[in-house]
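Before the break, one more example. Copy the sequence into your notebook; we will annotate it together after we see the structure.
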Amino acid sequence: QVQVVESGGGLVQPGGSLRLSCAASGAIQIRNHVAWYRQAPGNQRELVALITVTGETQYGESVQGRFSIFRHTANKTVSLQMNSLKPEDTAAYYCVVNGWWGQGTQVTVSS
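Here is what the structure looks like once it is written out:
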């Protein structure tokens, strides 16, 4: 059974940092194409970051320079390091592995 699981969400103050983690099991592997999306209430879903099979990365314009995506082959996870967080980063964050979506983890940036 294919399963994608996100973790690491929570409440953080503006300017703070948070690291999200994504793990996959079943017929898919974290070494495949992995992307992070986010969606806030009333907003469209947007691409946050992605990492390809070859390790190339791409970031959404609104997070460029603040967020970083990493693949950790040892523990078979992909993480999203989020720095200098802003209230507008508040959203549900979803990991997508080779087209399979996780259930999301909530990130709230508020003082």
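The mean pLDDT is 94. The CA atoms of residues 37 and 47 lie 4 Å apart. Try to locate both features in your own notes.
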